[in-house]
Amino acid sequence: MSHIFTGPDGQDRCAWCAATPAYMRYHDTEWGFPVTDDRRLFEKLSLEGFQSGLSWRTILDKRENFRAAFDGFAFERIAHYTEHDVQRLLADAGIVRHRGKIEAVINNASRALELVAECGSLAAYVWRYEAEPATPGQGPVSVSPASLAMSKDLKRRGWKFVGPTTVYAFMQAMGLVNDHAPGCAIHGAVERAKAAFRPPGG
């Protein structure tokens, strides 16, 4: 049971969320629950790109700053950002100031608009790649056939910072796969949410 810890309320949870109260709130209320909102999906893909080489704790602590800096991750606005916006963002101490990652979000916003035009919504595209449930006893993984396929297709479409590990973390968070440990108190809630969920276009 090394993947489980007992929280202050006596409930067993995934061990990774033990680090901070913010992690636990994120784990209990967001991580793994199905998401169809296009802005939230784009936000998470963007933040996973920013996380590359860093910890999710760093990004989660700065998430509200990112939202303020990037217009709430409204990709229809971000697609029109200019070099002036890049310089503004590079000067913003509240976010991760990495030119390549900032420019990737702007690029990906235009690519997201293309996907919406083709598929009707970003959600309709993303949920084509819903992952198969993990094999019992398999333990944590960092990539999957679905994340490899989605990463390859996004790269083909011109997206940046969307490697298979980044995409798999996105899938875990947005509910495309339930990677809560079987003994985690939230595992069942996510399973029920997924059972009641109808993917867009499905």
TrEMBL record:
SUPFAM superfamilies: DNA-glycosylase
Residue positions binding Zn(2+): C14, H27, H180, C184
Record key words, sorted: Metal-binding, Zinc
Coiled coil ranges: none
GO molecular function: DNA-3-methyladenine glycosylase activity; metal ion binding
Taxonomy, superkingdom: Bacteria
GO biological process: base-excision repair
Keyword Metal-binding: yes
Pfam families documented for this protein: Adenine_glyco
InterPro entries: Adenine_glyco (IPR005019), DNA-3mA_glycosylase (IPR052891), DNA_glycosylase (IPR011257)
Metal-binding among keywords: yes
PANTHER family, per the entry: DNA-3-METHYLADENINE GLYCOSYLASE 1 (PTHR30037), DNA-3-METHYLADENINE GLYCOSYLASE I (PTHR30037:SF4)
Identification of the protein by name: DNA-3-methyladenine glycosylase I
